[in-house]
Amino acid sequence: MSEAAERSENIPAGKGKEGIPNGGNPEKSKEDFDLASIYVSDAQYNRNIYFDTSPEAVRLYLRYNHWLAKVLLYFFILVDLSLALFEEPAVLPLPIWATMLVELLCLLVFTIRLAHYAKVIPRDKFWKDPKNICIIVILLLTLVDMIIYGALKATNCYGVRWSRVLRPLLLVNVTEGRQLRRAFRSIRNALPQIFYVFLLFMFSLLMFSLMALKLLGKRGLKTIDGAPYFTNYLEIVFDLYVLVTTANSPDVMMPAYNSSFVFAIFFILYILINTYIFMSVFLAVVYNNYKKYLKEEVRQLVRAKRHKMARAFAVLQEHREEGGQPVVSQANWNQMVRLVQPDISNAHRELLWSVADDKNQGYIGKVAFVQLVDLLNIEVITLKSRPHPLQSACPALYLSAPSPFILRTFNLKWAFVIVYDLIILVNAVFIGLDEENPMVSNSEWVFLALYLLEILLKLYVFEPKAFFSRHSFWNWFDTIIVVSALIATIINSAMKSTGGYTSRQILDIVFILRVLRLIRVVDSIKRFRAIINTLIRIGPAILTFGQLIIVVYYIFAMVGMELFKGKVKFFEEDSTDPDKAFCGNTDLKGTAFAQLNYCKNNFNNVVSSFILLVELTVVNQCSGFVAVTHVSARIFFILFHIMVVIIIINIFVAFVLEAFFVEYSVDKSDLQTSLERKIEELELAVEQYLEDNLVNAMETIDNDQGAGQPVDNRPALMFKIASKRYRTVDALLQRMFEADLDPEDFAENDDPDGNFANPTFSSA
Amino acid sequence: MSEAAERSENIPAGKGKEGIPNGGNPEKSKEDFDLASIYVSDAQYNRNIYFDTSPEAVRLYLRYNHWLAKVLLYFFILVDLSLALFEEPAVLPLPIWATMLVELLCLLVFTIRLAHYAKVIPRDKFWKDPKNICIIVILLLTLVDMIIYGALKATNCYGVRWSRVLRPLLLVNVTEGRQLRRAFRSIRNALPQIFYVFLLFMFSLLMFSLMALKLLGKRGLKTIDGAPYFTNYLEIVFDLYVLVTTANSPDVMMPAYNSSFVFAIFFILYILINTYIFMSVFLAVVYNNYKKYLKEEVRQLVRAKRHKMARAFAVLQEHREEGGQPVVSQANWNQMVRLVQPDISNAHRELLWSVADDKNQGYIGKVAFVQLVDLLNIEVITLKSRPHPLQSACPALYLSAPSPFILRTFNLKWAFVIVYDLIILVNAVFIGLDEENPMVSNSEWVFLALYLLEILLKLYVFEPKAFFSRHSFWNWFDTIIVVSALIATIINSAMKSTGGYTSRQILDIVFILRVLRLIRVVDSIKRFRAIINTLIRIGPAILTFGQLIIVVYYIFAMVGMELFKGKVKFFEEDSTDPDKAFCGNTDLKGTAFAQLNYCKNNFNNVVSSFILLVELTVVNQCSGFVAVTHVSARIFFILFHIMVVIIIINIFVAFVLEAFFVEYSVDKSDLQTSLERKIEELELAVEQYLEDNLVNAMETIDNDQGAGQPVDNRPALMFKIASKRYRTVDALLQRMFEADLDPEDFAENDDPDGNFANPTFSSA
Q1: From which domain of life does this come (chains A, B) (predicted)?
Q2: Which of 230-249 (B) contact A at CB < 8 A?
Q3: Burial (CB count within 10 angstroms: exposed 0-12, middle 13-18, buried 19+), residue A224
Q4: Which terminus of chain B, N or C, has less C-beta within 10 A?
């Protein structure tokens, strides 16, 4: 959408910084710190916005990046998108004036946001950026459409809200949609190659169709519906195209196969070439391009990141000795880090400093400073070794006789895990049984009690803060599921005992929670854990694909609703309407669509459109819609298939493949980045105290601490690198291509294009 | 199947060679040349057979490797496999004694072949090789089964020919089945990892099924057939498993979706996790393992190849000067190459020698000798620049006035190509029209004449030998298609004009040939050519997958025929049997299977079994067979899906992906191997005269030869490296991992295991 702008953003020009004093070592002003912290946080989150460096613009830019502003923006985008629920054809119909009013409000918010952005960046940059132009065009077109539509409706004419297809494009063009724009760019870059393979595929399809026409057309065969078989060329092309999606296999082949064995060879050859070979080639082409362009983009991203850090350094630098290299003092560093990450603990900040300043000089050079952004992106868990809260609150109980016994039994790690895995298995069997049986329904309380006991025992042995640290996914998962199940079960039995009436919804929730509780079992098998962890790690990136899919689905849903709304009607189960047998449309009489009761697969509102599009993604069944409209409706479905299945799903598969390959190779090679290694060399990562999951944690306790009780000679501070988690999707992507990026190469001085030339540097 | 043996074959022990004289420079005996040429040809075709080096064993080994012996072996394997066509349930029933007799003959042939092999290799090696044991066990079991079956049939009892499932295993275990064994090994190596992902996938499936049971089982929903919906746990597990194959989408979801929108979320989540994410993870795991193990195997292959060359060198070596390095003289070299490749031209052999002996010393050292195998594997086209045959036969015509004119017009390459592309397009339209129209049917003669003219013109301009060289795929393709079409059309019109009767078969062939002729158009578009060439290049490797698929299909077909034969009957189109409506089985009354007329999808003979298995590979539709037998029949279909779709198809996709990546990276990097470069450096690859396709050839003619006529100062010999084609699949595989293999590292001396120690060397 806005590639040129995105690229140009990567190369901030080195001007507009005359206001910064750099003769001698003057006190840095608040503005300097603001500016430096913005550079650092831009580098940290890979924001590539070319903002003005005047103090006022910096303040505006800080406000622009405030989390509340972003949340509000996304909230209004969501509101704008979900207006489709209330507009004709609506799930919940609202009067036109109401939806119009809400949409106007949304447009206003987007305009304000854009105006804010225009104030932050220089005027010429603003107008050169295609994504801003895009937003302005979308806003104007929407306004025009609303006026026309309103006028038409006021005069009772037929109007189409065509601008609704533009709504999801806002998601792509807002400044925060970087990931999404990158995904679209990656698609666009792969398009030429995909196009050639697609042409070849179409050529093969046309050849096979021609052969089918010649071989089968004149034999007087009939389809199952009694229609002539393979006599119309375009019909054949379409049928064979659908065969690639496997939707009409083996139906399309049956009439020919029934007439002779030999024709099966034709279809088998077709499936081999077009379904297996060509679809693999599509994946290969998409994957290859995806990797190639992503690599290039990530490389640019890293360059931009390092350049931003160099600019931040230039703002904060001072000269310790005449003619020496510029440095940044610890005091300035501390102040800046506090601005960048207000929630950072002093201990953590000191840890980072001691990594950066490894010679304990009290100041750091440029190289160490530039690494700061990577240091900040490594999540470090800080733990103070303090006594268990229960020990302080109630020492008599905590140090009583049974306590060491509990701790000792608990430390029989494998036994504990096996016992609870067995409990989960028994629970699974009980869930499968009929819950009407009082024995079964009462057993639920026993299981709940056992799970609660497990959590309490763990809390007793571990420090609560460690147990509920941010990275203990399974601890959080367990606790939330068990507590929710407890609450839901109590409400359920309360309702049952009082009114004798059970809410279906609450029961459903109880069931879901009960089943979810069983998932825990995978965490105790090491092999499974590795796979699951990879899946959890690629989770955030899958969200980008989720947005991508929503943009495409929304556009197709809007178009589909205009084309097909009301053509197929759904009647409730208990309806006695005679039209029910053919979905309320006589064109569907006797078709497979009506017979299989697909009536609810329609475009009558945005929710059923989305569900239908998911079904179409899985299997391209569109015969019903062709029957109720026109043969040309097939174009809609073929376009959808090309866009979603051939392109987006393949990119998704490519991403999962790449993520798994990275995981596999990382497992074998050195897991930690050079910076993490540095921290470990300095022995600052004092103890591997807390692992992501309990099993490992217990292992460490076994080795280090005997009965698991706090030992006095433990260091006062403990750090643990949560190296396997990445705060941002960019960080994961960067890791994916880390092998090609030299962590020591800053490239900001020897850049041949001079893009990274820094005026403050040249004056030094 | 026989990994240990395969591996041990790679490491021939260094003994049993005491008979070879190596003191001084004695005349080499015929046995020496036989032995050396066997080593070289084993290295060339990557045969890893540890044969005895006694002269008698060498002679036997030569006979063992004779092409006729191999063809006969494969012929009898084919006969053995195709016995299934004639055995109960048969396509063409033959009496039991006839099939039994043929099978006994096959068994005899296999036994003779095995006995031959036992004579070639040392006794202890023979019994240590699992693949020999496998063949013996298969032969014995088959014999036992035949006796039991014969006895049972003689007493009119029911018997099962269970040994038929063993037949395809012969294909895997014969010495020539190296590629297939490697494919099976690669699958077996990937199994542990696939297994863990599969367990996790099954866990997810079981959890979703449990949730579905709890959420939907009690709502009293009905399927489209009126059966209770989602009330039986195992049924749910199976339905959801089939949903992963997309076969029952969206049917399985419709009852729940009809009752409430909310349940669609459940199914969408299920499809996202199990269909998209897990299937991608399967691909990732299979791909990753495939790459890893294949790399290792190819590395071992290269080591073994180099070692064999070193042994051949040891046999032929002599000492030019006292204490100097051993060398091989040109005379010995020539004699050996003639033995290895009897059809090699003198010019080609001299070219190879001049590449190996780049200092023109008359002898070559070990390093150059070891490269010989790579030199031999590079296909070189030798062309003598001689006058056009027409020029010699009929100079008056060839050098007449219109001749230069024709050559000149013909050299307007682009015009010629465009004209013929247009002709093809027009032809495509005419093919699409109704051929009953006399204008259309007569136009066929015009097109045939045009195509013939094109071929004749090309033959006129190029030397016929160059035009029909082995690598001119499209020239061959064109000529064969056009000539066959001409013959078929003539036969067709002859039959029409004489008897007025047109044979349907001949007409079909004519149609197929006409359509195939159009394929030529893709060759004139450069982008397409690249893709097509890659596809052609991976063709041979796809044959290995073809064998793999046939082995698996055959086993499943045999089992399926025993389980399901005769359960579903097919009635001809014109049959009036009332049973036709339910495929002759009352259990199928009213099922979708019978309604959709799937009756011919049955296991009633081996041909329809194979076709059905292809359909099951595409979409797993098995409800019919479950209906006619038992619910447990589903196990058969699930096993088939796991084996074929999850494992083999994924390996196929992995292979296509890898092949395309190699093509993409090779296109960008240096295309030629170090050896090919060497040939070019020596300016022995005199002219790039003949390209794989006409377009390029004409290009070169344009540049070099003016009007395309032979120029006198052309060198007498011209070589062209057909570097892009590989004689063996191994060569393609080696190219795939070429980047990791150093062409200059022979590793035969510094091997830590001492596997490559060579006694002739140590005596030097």
Answers
A1: Eukaryota
A2: 233, 246, 249
A3: middle
A4: C
Q: Which of A647, A666, A685 is the last residue of a domain?
A: A666
User: Could you tell me if residue A719 is inside a domain?
Assistant: no
Q: In B, which residues are within 8 Å of A233 by CB distance?
A: 432
Average pLDDT, integer, range A132-139: 93
Q: How far apart are CA A674 and CA B434, in angstroms?
A: 72
Q: With CB atoms and an 8 Å threshold, state whether A508 touches B215.
A: yes
Closest CA to B650 of B144, B279, B173, B178: B279
CA of B653 to nearest chain A CA: how many angstroms apart? 6
- Which domain covers residue A407, as residue numbers? 395-462+472-524
Considering the domain architecture, whether residues B422 and B452 belong to the same structural domain is answered as yes
Query: Considering the domain boundaries, does residue B519 fall inside one?
Result: yes
Contact between B699 and B529 under an 8 Å Cβ cutoff? The reply is: no
* Distance, CA of B460 to CA of B349 (rounded, Å): 30
Together in a domain, A478 and A550: no
- Would you say residue A7 lies in a domain? yes
Residue B110 to residue B125: CA distance in whole angstroms: 19
What pLDDT score was predicted for residue A56?
83
Check B250 against A515: CB less than 8 A apart: no
Give yes or no: residues A519 and A552 share one domain: no
For B503, phi then psi, to 5°, come to -70, 130
3-state SS string for B276-332:
HHHHHHHHHHHHHHHHHHHHHHHHHHHHHHHHHHHHHHHHHCEECCCCCCEEEEHHH
Judged against a pLDDT cut of 80, whether residue B115 lies above it is answered with yes
- The order of strands in the sheet holding A318-319 is A318-319, A326-329, A363-364
Q: Considering the domain boundaries, does residue B686 fall inside one?
A: no
Q: Are residues A35 and A123 located together in one domain of the fold?
A: yes
For residue B380, what are the β-bridge partners? B721
Residue B614: list chain A partners with CB under 8 A: 264, 268, 271
At B359-380, the pLDDT tens digits run 777 888 887 787 777 777 766 6
HSE value, Cβ hemisphere, 13 Å, CA-based, for B682: 19
Whether residues B545 and B519 share a domain: the answer is no
Q: Which residue, among B614, B623, B665, B669, would best test binding to A if mutated, counting the most A CBs under 10 Å from its CB?
A: B614
Residue of B259, B515, B615 lying closest to A214 (CB–CB): B515
pLDDT at residue A586 in the model: 81
Gap from B197 CA to chain A (nearest CA, Å): 8
B467 vs chain A: nearest CA distance in angstroms? 26
In this structure, the answer to whether residues B578 and B624 fall within a common structural domain is yes
Q: Which two structure tokens, joined as six digits, stand for B461?
A: 């301009």
Q: Which amino acid is at A519?
A: I
State whether residue B619 sits within 8 Å of chain A by CB: yes
Which amino acid would we find at residue B760?
A: T
Same domain, B492 and B584: no
A270-290: per-residue pLDDT in tens?
999 998 889 999 998 888 888
Same domain, B24 and B173: yes
Number of domains chain A contains: 3
Whole-number average pLDDT of chain B: 77
Contact across the interface for B250 and A519, Cβ inside 8 Å = no
Residue A4 contacts B, CB cutoff 8 Å: no
Contact A196 B531 (CB under 8 A): yes
pLDDT score at B723: 47
pLDDT, residue A682, reads 58
Does the pLDDT of residue A226 top 50, yes or no? yes
Last residue of a domain, one of A645, A666, A687: A666
Q: Which chain A residues in 254-273 lie under 8 Å from chain B, judged by CB atoms?
A: 254, 257-259, 261, 264, 268, 271
Domain of B498, CATH number, reads 1.20.120
Which residue among A258, A276, A531 places its CB closest to the CB of B200?
A531
